[in-house]
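Example 416, ligand fe (ii) ion.
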Amino acid sequence: MTDRVPMLRGDSVYRIHWVLGTDRLLGVCHCGAEHESDDPVELWDWLLAHPERHPAGA
Amino acid sequence: MTTTATFARNQWYVAAYSREVGRELLGRTILGEPIVFYRTESGAAVALADRCVHRRYPLSESRLDGDTIVCGYHGFTYDRSGSCVFVPGQSRVPRTARVPSYPVVEQDSFVWVWIGDRDEADPALIPRAPWLADPAYTTVSGMEPLAARYSLLVDNLMDLSHETYLHGGYIGTPEVANTPITTEVDEENEVIYVSRHMADAECPSFYARSTGIEGRITRWQDIEYHPPCLYLLHSRIAPVGVLPNDDGTDPDAFHVEVVYAITPETEHSTHDFWAVARDFALDDEEVSAFLAESNRTVVLQDVTALNILERVIEGERDGYQELSINIDTGGLAARRFLKRMIERGERGAAARPVAVRS
Ligand code: FES
Ligand SMILES: [Fe+2]
Ligand SMILES: [Zn+2]
């Protein structure tokens, strides 16, 4: 996506983009994994649970 | 009444503007703790518990004698560290005669006070709002009392989409459908950033007049929240296509930095500090008056709405249902950080023996 301007630069930053022109949210974990949802509560649950499921070495 | 804490101890909070603290005693309640503020003859800000140890008379209703406070009831006299140095009618001062003192730091036009464990008060933890004391900016500011819990103000400020409904006509409403909105959450540093970057927008007439920009603009409105207390709204206006330099400098844009300090007074009331700093039209009184008036109007509209909301919520039982939608993405992160900070503050308190008052 071209319109993403990172403003925070730490190593533990979650990003959630409101997908332009839609009702969907795209969440990006600090490991780079992505998940799309139309419910911010569900999306946060996914993102916060994600590090637990990180494959070793990823 | 529940016994669970609702605000985060072991944190810095804005207690006042520096200009409010002088040679008059200022009483202000922060996180439920009554505190008296004053400035010593040499200019240092002091914060002491606002209750005399003798019969609990408020020291803020007393008087200053040099750098000491003389209690307005029977004359117990306290120095700037809170130690009692004189009691009436006897020469012995009881060893336990002292009021707690609070760590204070003056920075960016604010007086910050540490609420919590003295030993953990690290001034390096205070988030910055440098524009407010920068000669390259002109600032207007104020404070409104809010009869609502601070978390309602956090919710309010984390979502700017309410401006269309609550502030119709006061804040320019961007075409949100074409505006990329990104929420970033830094887990380690506990910062939330919500950016709305409009690449090509109409220039509101106020900005056209005060900046001299002609034609369409690039407009950014970025929220940067440092829970629990400091909220920044970076507003950036530049001719279309003009972006900041890679090193962060941004000489061809105009900036309005809106700063809020959200300080709980009690469980159900809040000090709502607001300031607006700009780096253009520095000496233009009309621009100052416009920014002060419009921001104060917006703040008061929020205050009215949140006071209503507080009364409704207080009348409900716990565990009421809410429904979150996309606009709440940043607000949900703010709530999570606040919850975490409250728990951390409680653990800190539990880890230490509490002095029992007889
Ligand atoms: S209450 Fe302060 S001296 Fe008695
Ligand atoms: Fe508002
Ligand atoms: Zn991940």
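Summary: The mean pLDDT of chain B is 92.
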